[in-house]
Design brief:
The protein has one domain: Rossmann fold (3-Layer(aba) Sandwich), CATH 3.40.50.150. The chain is of the alpha/beta class and 267 residues long. It starts with 9 loop residues before the first helix and ends with a strand. The protein is 44% helix and 23% strand.
Length: 267
């Protein structure tokens, strides 16, 4: 069974992942750095979590956020009030920019969704100026994304087809230890550095945990959309048991780890 992840609803994405992207953006920028007066590209910007964080942090000259999802770009543009920021629909493997344009090129939580990741990395390198920093972050999906691990392990117990989706999800490119660093070195970046970043994903209640699962976005939502009502209800019942852990409903906090990498463009 092959699930093609859906990226079609900005509001649903915000509920499922946008809020965690915003939380990850701050420590990622601590690692990747920013400086006043720079031109920055955000590849796979989604609804603008990283782009807006950059704008708040530094007096940059400009930031361009690019994403393949028209719905996400429309959502980001709708909330943008900063004239330094531009959002555009585009392909990470064919960036619509001339060579050597940007002082920094970032990619937050998107490279694992790109089948030909090496092409996207080459494009990020191409549009960056000599001496520029190019940095990325990807979830440690298999071992560091607890809330999603819970979901897929339970789903696979109930439905053999979910096991196929789990295998597809947990073996995405760039999500294993060391893959980002290896890819950066292979691309020719200098002074390559990597580090894990951990945040907490905090939910107010089981409903806060479950509702993003039925929003139709990314791997979890795309899988749930294939289920019958009876199958969804059965999955929900077991998910609730795992969330509650025998205690009353209420807040829960799960760890989430991302791999990060950065390198300098030579020349």
């Amino acid at each position: 069974m092959t699930i093609t992840s859906t990226f079609s609803d900005g509001d649903a994405y915000e509920l499922q992942m946008g809020r965690w992207s915003r939380r990850l953006a701050e420590p990622f920028l601590d690692f990747a750095g920013t400086a006043d007066g720079e031109q920055i590209l955000d590849v796979g910007c989604g609804t603008g979590s990283l782009t807006f964080a950059i704008a708040k942090r530094s007096n940059v000259k400009s930031i361009c956020g690019i994403d393949s999802s028209k719905a996400y770009i429309e959502a980001a543009t709708k909330t943008n009030l900063d004239p330094r920021i531009e959002f555009r629909v585009g392909n990470a493997c064919e960036l619509p920019f001339a060579d050597h344009v940007f002082d920094r090129v970032f990619s937050l939580l998107v490279l694992h969704f790109i089948p030909k990741t090496e092409l996207a990395i080459k494009e990020m390198l191409r549009v960056a100026r000599p001496g520029a920093t190019v940095a990325a972050a990807v979830w440690d999906i298999r071992g560091g994304l607890v809330h999603q691990r819970i979901f897929f392990d339970i789903a696979a117990m109930l439905d053999p087809k979910a096991g196929e989706v789990r295998a597809q999800q947990f073996t995405r490119p760039m999500s294993r230890p060391g893959e980002l660093e290896t890819a950066w070195r292979a691309a020719g970046f200098q002074n390559v550095q990597n580090a894990p970043i951990m945040i907490r994903m905090e939910f107010d209640s089981f409903n806060d945990y479950w509702m993003p699962c039925i929003g139709g976005q990314a791997a979890v939502g795309s899988y749930v959309a294939t289920l019958s009502e009876a199958q969804r209800n059965e999955l929900r019942k077991h998910m609730q048991l795992a969330y509650l852990d025998g205690e009353p409903d209420g807040p829960r906090s799960y760890a989430a780890v991302a791999w990060t990498v950065k390198g300098i463009v030579s020349g």
